[in-house]
Amino acid sequence: MMKKALPIFFLLACLQACTSKTETRIGIFDISKDDEIIIFTWYYGSGATILRVDIDGKNLQPVSPFSKDSSYVNPKYNEKGTKLLYIGRKNGDVSNSSVYIADADGGNRYLLAKESGIIDEAFFSSCDDLIYYIKSREFGNSSPVARPQPHGSDVYSLNIRTGKSNQITNFDAYGLYRPSEYDCQSMILHMPLKGMIKVPTDGSNKQYDINPINDPRKDTSLYGSPLFSKKNNILFFLAPYEMYTMKMKDRMAKLIIRDDDMINNFRLFNRQKKIIYTNYKENYFYTIDYNGKIIRKIEVDLNAN
């Protein structure tokens, strides 16, 4: 037991030595198939690494290597929960990205692909031996007051066996965010100004509006981060400060929770009708039911020393 604690002790000690608490935050995360493990991005100043923790907030462990020169972000499990992927890049260089695959605990890591371009988010297909990802040509801002973002974005696939990539769309979009699988023929994601769209993976370059018909925020561009529960045929998504559910048969959105600290990321539990989410202010995880009732606040001791 003591041997397992040592790696994370030294990792956190090193992170604390080179950054302050105000520069740290939880990023994109995923939850294991048995709902027992959270795997998440941990930003510390100019870098990032990937950690895992039990669902009760205990037994914190490193997953990706710690490097002063490189960052590792945005982990996702495969359908069986036996493998995970994440994105790596050199600190200060967003123009080149690498896709890594490893065992669920981070062991047996290997580099699947290294590409010119900005890869921020990727996920395993549950239907084929493919990874889908968003790649952008450039990183910048359209005005002096805007936060820098990826631009010139499209959807790509990556064959896990061969490492060969294939461009799926030719949108050259201002940005594409939060991709996830809808079914074996399409994915869903957020496109700025348009809100949520469904995109076929057959290369047809089509896009379909999946925003709520009742439009509770009176601005479809505000809807994003779509996640579809195939088991319940329900789409979950965010608008600023709020989370909604929507049955796809009628596309009528229902507000389930509002967080004044702004909901950042969320995932669906795999075996239970529960949701886990983070907000922009606190480095905690919250679990809620499908009606928005808060079940638990999960505190992770990220400042252990």
What this model shows, in words?
With 305 residues, the chain is mostly beta strands. The chain has a domain at 211-304. It has one helix at 2-17; strands spanning 24-31, 37-44, 47-54, 61-62, 70-77, 83-90, 96-103, 110-116, 118-124, 130-140, 149-159, 165-167, 177-183, 186-191, 195-200, 208-209, 224-229, 234-239, 242-247, 252-258, 263-268, 274-279, 284-289, 294-299. The strands form 6 sheets. A 4-stranded antiparallel sheet has the order 1-2-3-4, with helices on one face. A 4-stranded antiparallel sheet has the order 5-6-7-8, with no helix packed on it. Strands 9-10-11-12 form a 4-stranded antiparallel sheet, with no helix packed on it. The chain starts with a helix and ends in a 6-residue tail after the last strand.
Fill in the keyword field for this structure:
single chain; 305 residues; mainly beta; four-stranded antiparallel β-sheet; 1 helix; 5% helix; disordered N terminus
Topology:
Layout (H helix, E strand, L loop, with lengths): L1 H16 L6 E8 L5 E8 L2 E8 L6 E2 L7 E8 L5 E8 L5 E8 L6 E7 L1 E7 L5 E11 L8 E11 L5 E3 L9 E7 L2 E6 L3 E6 L7 E2 L14 E6 L4 E6 L2 E6 L4 E7 L4 E6 L5 E6 L4 E6 L4 E6 L6
Antiparallel strand pairs: 1-2, 2-3, 3-4, 5-6, 6-7, 7-8, 9-10, 10-11, 11-12, 13-14, 14-15, 15-16, 17-18, 18-19, 19-20, 21-22, 22-23, 23-24
